[in-house]
Design a protein that fits this description.
The structure is a homodimer. The first copy, chain A, has about 190 residues and is mainly alpha-helical. Chain A has 2 domains: about 1-50, Arc Repressor Mutant, subunit A (Orthogonal Bundle); about 60-185, Tetracycline Repressor, domain 2, CATH 1.10.357.10. Chain A has helices at about 10-25, 35-40, 45-50, 55-75, 85-95, 100-110, 120-135, 145-165, 175-185. In chain A, helix 4 crosses helix 5 (about 85-95) and helix 5 runs antiparallel to helix 7. The longest helix of chain A has 22 residues, at about 55-75. Chain A starts with 8 loop residues before the first helix and ends in a 6-residue tail after the last helix. Chains A and B meet through helix 8 and helix 9 of A and helix 8 and helix 9 of B. Chain A binds a DNA duplex (30 and 30 nucleotides) through helix 3.
DNA sequence: CTTTCTTGAGACATTAATGTCTCACATGGG
DNA sequence: CCCATGTGAGACATTAATGTCTCAAGAAAG
């Protein structure tokens, strides 16, 4: 056996390589293919056997990030209970992937004209729907558009990830800082 | 005359070149020196006469961004009146430079170990002081640290600039979106 | 043990951006 | 008119990352 198109052992390591790359590129977004390979404990040649090139690696990281976001979104049960609580759950669930998200978020700004992965569009739509639900139920103010709230969520996650990485914010406060700032703005104030 | 160390005419254009570069790099942060030169309407050789290299150009842009932020901060009179109004004035004043800020903000994430321009530290301190003043006066909640509020301000400005650039948010809503989201979170809610 | 397959190491060509230099040209001042 | 100077265009070397290839060694499966 093992004369199939795809090798046996590679599939096992692929995920490990991907996560090493995510961890490294989160810290140094310009890391070389060689650095990525070393970080994963493999040679550059083997890295190239996993991913045809840097583009392929980034696209794979994109898929990973999208998958993690979708998993977090599913775990957050966005259609259940108050929208504000759903947002809180979402940020909490997504926290472990925040560094990767920050990398992909800024990386996507470079793809100026090129089409973006449709996965992002789907995610944007689902997160936007959550904010829209909150507006419809009267929890969220309506003068901030769902599209902007979604964008702000990404931006705050990236800022939070960097602030933690540079020690300006304690890691344990990550979720609290983001949720409180975002919800405090998105939640309609009681008219006293 | 004009046998001095620095040429006469170059000083006139330098600012124009710098602003062209800012406008271009805001849209495409990976633009080539050649592209930057063409965008400014000069040749690559002349661009090199203005700025020794890409590093020098980015450092000059950094100085420009810092200068614009400091000018905006001064114009916003951060020590006058309610802190929330000062923040509103600050965002409004800084809006024209938001694109440049977004570029520099993400650019700085690459300088991993290297020391950052001390100008940023000074700005961080002054903006942080504004938030601290708001906390001391009871306007802002105290569970969000001034450092995080400062970071969040940068992040929201960058997100806002990108959202506008990609048409997800109307340019005229820029200041409103950012201020409302940031202040809504930073402002202590009335206990009803 | 033998075969099979992956891997690591290194050599090599390619590509893209950069930095440097020269030279002809135009312009403006004297 | 003549000189000085900034400029654009292009040639050229350099650098860094990338992609591709070969080959020997090691491990696993038979």
């Amino acid at each position: 056996m093992s004369h199939m198109g795809y090798p046996r052992l590679m599939a096992v390591d692929r995920d490990h390589v991907l996560r090493s790359a995510a961890a490294l590129l989160t810290r140094k977004s310009t890391a070389t293919m060689d650095e990525v390979a070393r970080a994963a404990g493999i040679s550059r040649a083997t890295l190239h056997r996993h991913f045809a090139g840097r583009d392929a690696l980034v696209r794979a990281l994109e898929s990973l990030g999208i998958a993690e976001c979708e998993a977090a979104l599913a775990a957050a049960r966005p259609d259940e209970g108050p929208a504000s609580e759903a947002v809180r759950r979402l940020v909490h669930e997504i926290e472990p992937a925040a560094g990767l998200l920050a990398f992909l978020y800024t990386e996507n700004q470079l793809f100026e004209g090129e089409e973006q992965n449709e996965g992002w569009a789907r995610l944007d739509a689902r997160i936007g729907a959550l904010f829209r639900r909150g507006q419809a139920s009267g929890e969220f103010r309506i003068d901030l558009t769902p599209a902007w709230l979604t964008e702000a969520l990404y931006g705050l996650m990236a800022s939070g990830a960097w602030a933690v990485a540079e020690g300006r914010v304690a890691r344990k406060d990550f979720t609290h800082m983001i949720v409180e700032l975002l919800l405090g703005g998105a939640l309609r104030r009681e008219e006293s």
